[in-house]
Amino acid sequence: MITSRFFKTEDVELDLEVPVEQAINNLGASVTAPGKLPPGIDSWMVGSVTHSTTHIHRAVAGSRNSFRPTFYGSFTSSGQQSKLIGEITLNRVIQKFIVLWCSIVALMAIWTFVTVLQNPAASWGSLAYIVFMLLACIAFFSLMIKKTSADATWLKQEITRSANGR
To answer: Model pTM?
Structure first.
């Protein structure tokens, strides 16, 4: 599937040393609600933490943060310890945007190709331009996703550290 090229998903299971309720409270205290900037911090976690649905991504000051990996998961209990089970992938809204954007450009390429075939006097240059735009879109999105891929490691470390209360 072509979308797997963009949207690599990493399954994550974080073992926590504290009970579920304490992990939720600890992590919730470290996660900022979207749109709120903590003063004087260059990098922080943004999202929402509940027992059944947790989603967190890294925010960096001066960046739009759209292509940063997002953790989606939920807590499970195992006695006095707990686990946070989920996946780290590209934000789901951004995934839909990329698919929509590239699909529109691909449809334009198909439409231009059909137009050129039906009218031999039409310019092949317009088709070449549209194909170039499609390749440029794919290259741009790939670059932006690759540029922020190291954030997945940071995110796992910060979530584990924060949930354990360190």
So the answer is: 0.82
Domain 8-90+150-163 superfamily per CATH: START domain (3.30.530.20)
Helix (H) or strand (E) holding 86: strand 81-90
Note the pLDDT tens digit of each residue in 13-56: 988 888 988 999 999 888 887 776 667 777 788 899 988 889 99
| Residue owning tokens 């992990």 | 23
Burial of 42 (0-12, 13-18, 19+ CB in 10 A): exposed
pLDDT of residue 87: 93
CA-CA distance, 30 to 9, in Å (whole number)? 24
Position 116 scores a pLDDT of: 84
Radius of gyration of the chain (CA): 21
The Cβ of residue 84 has, within 10 Å, a number of other Cβ atoms equal to 25
Question: What DSSP state is assigned to residue 104?
Answer: H
Domain ranges of the chain: 8-90+150-163, 95-143
> DSSP letter string over 2-13?
THHHH---EEEE
Tokens representing 133? 């735009």
Residues of the chain with pLDDT under 50: 1
